[in-house]
Amino acid sequence: MMKFKIRILLLFLLFSPIINSQIKKIGVPFIVNYSPKAYKAASENWDVLQDSKGMMFFANHFGIMQFDGVRWAIVTQPENRSMVRSMAIDKNDKMYVGAQGDFGFVIQLPNGQYQYTSLVKLLPKSARNFGDVLHTVIRNNEVIFSLMKGFLFIKTKKSR
Q1: Which of 1, 34, 120, 123 is the right S-S partner for 127, CB 3.0 to 4.6 Å?
Q2: 68 vs 44: CA distance, rounded Å
Q3: pTM of the predicted model over 0.70
């Protein structure tokens, strides 16, 4: 019985490298997971988008985070310092942002910094308590902000 167990063990050791080498690595994506410690922000990210230059942006509790493939940075926050929940980007890299009790847009200034502009001031004071903006979508020449109880539509200038 002992010889039988030794033979099985030797067969297993002999064929295990062959079996392992049969796993194809072609087409398997390279995945890197980043912890909140690495990007120095909250653990929940609600949305993600990429601009025309390849920069990645993440909607986070602490604001909008940017990742260039090497470094992380929180580039801007809504004026009320609330959690960013949704984002959309147009052809000119203008980001539209939905947050808790705020919505607006972000542009990159000539010096490379990002500037957030709130659009809440466009609403009457009686309509400013709308809660979270759950989704942000750009359709033709308008931006649609999806709320818990309705939608906000903002007309934009036509792109050139």
Answers
A1: 123
A2: 19
A3: yes
